[in-house]
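Q: Here's a chain of 672 amino acids. Please give me its 3D structure as tokens.
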Amino acid sequence: MMDKLDDKLIEIFDGKLVRKDLLQRIKKGTNVPTFVLEFLLARYCASDDEDEIQAGLEAVLETLSDNYVRPDESNIAQSKVATKGRHKFIDKVHVRYVETKKRHWASLENFNSQKIAVGDKFYKENKRLLEGGIWAEVKLAYNEVEEDDYAFYIEELRPIQLSRFSFDDYKSGRSKMTRDEWMDIILRSVGLEPTKLERRVKFHFLLRLAPLVEANFNFVELGPRGTGKSYFYSEFSPYSTLISGGQATVASLFYNKNRKETGLVGHWDTIAFDEVGNMKVKDPDVIQILKDFMANGRFSRGKEVIADASTAFVGNLDLSVRQVVNSTEYDLFQPLPKEFDLAIMDRFYAYLPGWEMPKNSSDYLTDNYGFITDYLAEAFHHQLKSVNVYEMVNKRIKLGRAIEGRDEKGIKKTVCAFIKMLHPHGECSNDEFDQYVEYAVECRRRVKEQMNKRKPDDEFANIDLSYINAAGEEIIVRCPESIGALATLEPSKTSITDDGEADTEKPTTKVVTPAEKVIANQDDVAVDDNQNLKEQHFKINYGATGYSYESIVLPYLLEAKSLVIEDPYIRAKHQLTNFVRFCEAVIKQPSVESITLITSYDDNTNIQEMAEALDGLKQSLLEMDVNLDVKVNENLHDREIRIDNGWTIKIGRGLDFYQKPDSWFGVGCRCK
């Protein structure tokens, strides 16, 4: 349903918008990036008339059906070109140079041919074809010359992106709106409904976009699964590329000496490393060159190379944040590859607290208007390449004495990104500017706290970063997760005693143990390392209190991805309720991806009620990115929980150790 912001946006930016619920209607079932789908929606659904929109949607679906090739339909696609002579496709196109043949060959991701002839004009006009590939409308033709060693060639190629963009019009439109209106428009443009988000979370989402708008911006986000960490880098912009795990090489990332070609950093605005913990670094030169590039956007590899690309490192943090900040052994950089030393970490400008991000859910999606994704991506691309506000920020910002060299640069670069995103017209109030500075200081402090925890001396001990606000007050900024956590704020340090021996100062802090109650974010989980776990036996007498699935089972789920529960008695209402409780406890361990229940029933079981309850639970868990598989074994007798980390929990009475309440509506019925 349209609101006042929709009306205002249509009045100012008509022709550059799309209704975001239309994307949701066609997105499912296609492995096509958002910017590609919205490119088609803008072509066919540029109307507010429902009949015209419906006709446009049908045209989009027809275009996808006719031109988008599914991976299992590659042979059909080849046959279509061969029989018709030519056909147009929508696909990601790659071009590679084959040294032994001394020529270039093209390929489409889903066409299943590695030898498609391509004229040099295509890859000379579109350099990114050679580095990661681009999505395009491409017309393939059939080659009937039998002497040639290829069957297909590219006849036409049109990259899927805007042909014209006016930054002046973009700035002029922004000047007619308030800051908060503009922030909500950006969030709606990436598919989110801002009215359901607090301002702090809005800032988090904007920070994910910072590497797309600010050149040479180094960003890290670690947190639970299922929060969309990599979405913006794979779906939002045609100027961003996502590397999922795999091996990082000097030739692919930076410079290929043999071909004398710059790698990914020379062709993309943003290079995002997904599942960064799985990143394989076999060549030590990768780390050294990465340090140089992250420091100043340049490196030397036979020749000096200067590039604007930003870097984003995203990964999963499968530990309790509350546990980590109170631990003397762990820090919030735990998931990073072991090759990432303090020098790499010090080059991160901002650490987004991924544990504060909401899980992916349709509840947060918008049905209102936003910019066509490609339009906003084009604006960000223009700003990254052509707009520099660093000097303006440098003159205006005032930082405290604890701020050191890389702190200062990181904070200022983060503020620059927010100014570009939210104030492209250049006007920003003192209060708004202070908000960005405070947020930037926090995100840099989070980096420095982890480094200080790792470093045995005091090189990074100045963690009380501060700024001077517009009123002249010095504000020390703290990270919410580490307030009161002495293991992080005052970590143990190695000093030299009178006899010359190293002496470790122990902080007066307590490490939270798994069985203790931890008040934390919904995605946190109280876990400890395996060395503190041992075989135990619990005897729960009738009427006993103080036991829960969290206190008994949860500590043994450390690093678990899947578990199997064998219990024949998950059938009555109170047994099903207990199983829901159990699942609620299990998903507090963020690493868990699947739960398998093997159960049974008898002639007295209400099978329909049982099936409906388990199906409802299954759908609920899917929203949390956890799969529930239910199997029936009528000969089941043993009761146990098998966890893929090696632990097995024998459950004598099964999960049914909570007593059936006298009344389901009595006070405390959920606490027995």
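Q: Can you summarize the key feature?
A: DSSP finds 22 helices and 25 strands in the chain.
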